[in-house]
C-alpha cells in the first residue's frame, strides 16, 4: 500500500512532529541537526555557532581526503618491456618510458604497449599457383612493435591488418610461382619474396611494426595427389644427391690427374736434359778419341772393337766358342751352369778336354745337343 494513499497521512515520511505537513526537510537544517548531535565530538557546542564550526571543519577534512585520494589515484606503473601512450582529454600527448609515473586522474589516460616482445602470426590456406595447381602453404612471421602511436592509432586493429596483409602477400607470391618451386627448390625464394611484399604493403599503412623473420613452415599438395608428388620430390632429391656425388668425384680425380700430368712433364724435362747431356758427353768423348785415331788408326780401331765386345759380352750369359778355328761352334750356357752351381752348393769344373771335344754338350740343353751333333756330322 502506498504511503501517500488517501486517509493514511500518519505514514507520511516527511511529516514532522508538530503535525504540520511542510514537505521534505531543508538540507541546511539537516546539516545543522547533524552538527548539533556531533558537535561535542569536535569540541563545539550543540548551539547554532557550534553547527557552523562543524560544517567548516567537516568540509575542510573532506577536501583534504579528496585531494589525497586524487593524488594517490594518479600513480601508475609502466613495465620494463612497455611504453605508455598518454591521452589528455582523448588527444595524444606523448609517450612515457617504463617506471613509476603519475597522471591527472579523469584527465589523462594511459595505454601501455609492449615494444620488446616478439610476436608470432601464422598464415595458411589452399592457394593456386602460376601453373594452375593447388597447393597448401603454411607460413609464420615474427614481428615487433617499434612505434606505439602508429600501432594504436594508424588503423583500427594493427594485428588484424597485419594478418590480412600477410595473407595477401602470400597469395600474391604463390600465385606468381610454379608448384615445383613452392614444394622443392624455390622455397627460399618464396620466403624472401613474401617478406619483401609484406613489408611493402604495411609500409603504406604505417602500422608501427617491424618484421623480424618469416618462416616457411610447410608446403604440400592436396591429399589426392600427395603420393605422386612425394615420388617426384624423392626423385629430385636423388638427382641432387647424384650431382653432388659426381662433383665430389670430379674434385677428387682432377687433382690426381693434374699431379700425373705434372709428373710426366717433369720426367719429360728430365729425359730431355739427360739426352742432351749424353749427347754432349758423346761429342766430347769423340773429340778426345779423334786425335788418337788420327795418330794410330789401327790401334784405336782395335781398342774400340775390344771395348764394344766387352760391353756386349758383359750383358749376356751365353758364350759361343769357335773350336779349332773351324766352322763348328760350341755353346756354353753359363746361366744354367751358374744356377746349378748355386743350387748344389758346390764348384763345377769344366776340363780342357771338354772344350776340345765337339761331341760333348751340356746335358741340360737338348737343343744345343742336337746342334752339336749336326756340327759333328758336318765335320766328319
TrEMBL record:
InterPro entries: Band7/mec-2_domain, Band_7, Band_7/SPFH_dom_sf, HflK, Membrane_HflK_N, Stomatin_HflK_fam. GO terms for biological process: proteolysis. It is found in: Membrane. Gene3D superfamilies: Band 7 domain (3.30.479.30). Keywords: Hydrolase, Membrane, Protease, Transmembrane, Transmembrane helix. The keyword Iron does not apply. The chain crosses the membrane at residues 57-78. Its main location: membrane. HflC and HflK could encode or regulate a protease. Belongs to the band 7/mec-2 family. HflK subfamily. This is Protein HflK. The lineage of its organism: Bacteria, Pseudomonadati, Pseudomonadota, Gammaproteobacteria, Alteromonadales.
